[in-house]
Amino acid sequence: MTLVRPADAAAIEEAAARLASGGLVVFPTETVYGLGADAANRDAVAAVYRIKQRPIGHPLIVHALDDGPAMAWTEWSQRAQRLAEAFWPGPLTLILKRAADAPAWACGVESTIGLRAPAHPVARALLHAFARRGGIGIAAPSANRFGRVSPTRAEHVVEDLGDDAPLILDGGPCEEGVESTIVDLSRGRPVLLRPGGISVAQLAAVLGEEVLERDAHAPRASGTLDAHYAPATPVEVVDAEEVPARVAQLRSQGSSVALWSRSVPASIADVGLAMSHDARTTAHELYDTLRRLDRSGCDRIVIERVPRTPEWRAVGDRLRRAAAAS
């Protein structure tokens, strides 16, 4: 039976001991809940891949306390130092060349590695407790089955992983609600691989140079497949002015519709939820709302397209990937 514990000091110490002995734990970060293992332990990392049903070639992210332990994994750089000083701890993952003597278990088939220092107090307390036992990094993808909706509450983890879930540290709902920004620093220029709570403009301001868009030569990184973050129910993302007609068409064809919209009355669908006009609020609510819509029993989920502005970019990215899986 899955054990969910309030994330108090005793539970955190127990979780750190489990990690040090090769076990797995689930812990909250400011973005989503992670399924964690000692990143230097081959068998423990293999168990993460097995429980998530994740392809072996798809890299994980290693969580570290700060730039000190992060340097043990990578060929550190001036760009990395600038971004770490500006945004760590926080929702930013850096992709760097992996150090030649660093364990490769969490890197998939890549010569690069993703690193971040989470800001959530439970994650940081766990990293401190793990460091006292000799640990230097926790490999932790989101604590859900591969490709499905990420968990932002402890109960989401139980819904997804069931009896496969290890000890879960319950730290309440995640503040950010979408995964970290990922920037590739492994090549000649910085490249955005995944949008998140830290914007391209913020990255460029710290680096003093343009951050380029993802290209065909970008290394693989967590959460960057075209189809991802998907509920079991098919999802459509529709422009606001087209939502009423599309909902009416689906219902005329005998399909029941769950709707999430900023501008269209919920009453036009079988189940309707109102979307906030604030991008950060919508990001915070995103995965919990997708799960609620998925549980509605409707045949189709229709979501109003969010604005194509920088503050909405992370939400738009996740909705596009969720719809691509349908």
Description of the molecule:
Helix 1 crosses helix 5. Helix content is 32%, strand content 19%. It folds into 2 domains: 4-213, DHBP synthase (Alpha-Beta Complex); 235-324, Threonylcarbamoyl-AMP synthase, C-terminal domain (Rossmann fold). Strands 1-8-2-3-7-4-6-5-9-10-11 form an 11-stranded mixed β-sheet, with helices on both faces. The mean pLDDT is 95. It contains 10 helices and 15 strands. The protein has helices at residues 9-20, 42-52, 67-71, 78-87, 121-131, 154-161, 200-207, 243-252, 279-294, 313-324; strands at residues 4-6, 25-28, 33-38, 61-63, 92-97, 112-116, 138-139, 167-170, 181-184, 191-194, 212-213, 235-238, 257-261, 271-274, 300-304. The chain starts with a strand and ends with a helix.
Radius of gyration: 20 Å
- Which range best describes the helical content: under 10%, 10-25%, 25-40%, 40-55%, 55-70% or over 70%? 25-40%
* CATH architecture annotation of the largest domain: Alpha-Beta Complex
Q: Any low-confidence stretches, pLDDT <50, length ≥5?
A: none
Q: Report the average pLDDT across residues.
A: 95
Strand order of the largest sheet: 1-8-2-3-7-4-6-5-9-10-11
Q: List how many beta strands DSSP finds.
A: 15
Q: What gross morphology would you assign?
A: globular
Total domain count = 2
Order of helices and strands: EHEEHEHHEEHEHEEEHEEHEEHEH
Write out the CATH superfamily name of the largest domain.
DHBP synthase
Strand content: 15-25%
Largest sheet: 11 strands, mixed
Category from helices, strands and their pairing: alpha/beta
Question: What is the fold-level CATH name, i.e. the topology of the largest domain?
Answer: DHBP synthase
